[in-house]
Design a protein that fits this description.
By secondary structure, the chain is of the alpha/beta class. The protein has two domains: about 15-70, no CATH class; about 75-310 and about 360-380, Aldolase class I (TIM Barrel, Alpha-Beta Barrel). Helices cover about 25% and strands about 25% of the residues. The chain is built from ten helices and 21 strands. Helix 3 packs across helix 4 (about 160-170) and helix 8 crosses helix 9. The longest helix is centred in the C-terminal third of the chain and has 15 residues, at about 250-265. It is globular, with a radius of gyration of 20 Å.
Length: about 375
Amino acid sequence: MSKSSTPASQRPTRVRRDLGSPGSVVSTRFWHLRDDGRIQCDLCPRECKLHDGQRGLCYVRARIDDEIVLTTYGRSSGFCVDPIEKKPLNHFLPGTAVLSFGTAGCNLACRFCQNWDISTAKEYDVLADEASPEKVARVAVELGARSIAFTYNDPVIFHEYAIDIADAAREQGVRTVAVTAGYVNPEPRREFYAHMDAANIDLKGFTEEFYHRTCAGALAPVLETLEYVRNETDVWFEITTLLIPGLNDSDEEIDEMTEWVVEHLGRDVPHHFTAFHPSHKMTGRPSTSAATLNRARRIAMDNGERYVYTGNVHDPAGQTTYCHACSAVVIERSGYRLGGWGLDAEGHCRKCGTPCAGVFESGPGTWGGRRLPVRLAERE
């Protein structure tokens, strides 16, 4: 997977405007002025229509005078070095370290959000660290991270900052990963994924009712993003579905979802079914059982998906990668730790020679399951 980076000297200038606390903002370009005097943000399907001083639902994009600005450029809710498997990505540089960070806010309002303290925060509540794109890339190299992940909240809403970091990272030989709900409009989607190397895209459910009632969004734009990334880019991506008891975990919905995945995205896109734990506005709903995850995994595999995983539970068998041709173990996992490695230097099964879909190096990384918080503001 090769992408050309945009040298720092050729990147668009982000026009900064000092508004005092909580800091500076930068201009953006995905918006237009409406006949009624409001400005419409065109970044995502929510298309918030704002009067002067108002913010979108994401909270971090606001109308100041006659433009939409990003108010969180260069600032983060925290940095941490994680195993890449935590994103989760099982077929992208397995075993390597990834420098992870997020900002604040979100353009969905999921009632079950597992990172609700960040996604629902006002920016000044959580943005305790800051760094330029070049510094983020440099620190990733210093810490031995093979990639940088935009995670914890959706990078769609800090589009400009994510792209500038991706360009700076590529200059340093570091790749970038978007962990996203895929809720974005076509034009910014094209620009965003032109700079990414990998993504994990949430497919939160498979009915419009679920997206409307539980996420305050819509399913159709997410399916469009999945098809776009699969058919129009060379971005490696995997899918995650958080199964919530009684809401999106029926046999019928999982069957319909996985049939769609095979028909529209192919058999080789890894699919992670992960366990819900009571959180945010769903503290009264039970956690997802291991039996439910394994049932979903079996349905997906019966429908032709080749790489299906369980997550947020202890299930080594459901987290290990098997050769789809001979069933040999090619990447053994227990949680975020790797065990046996059955791929050759070209990413083929050592037993039968069948290629395993993914982005692999000559061998696995050695980061393990460690989590290393990092304070970039303190690093020179």
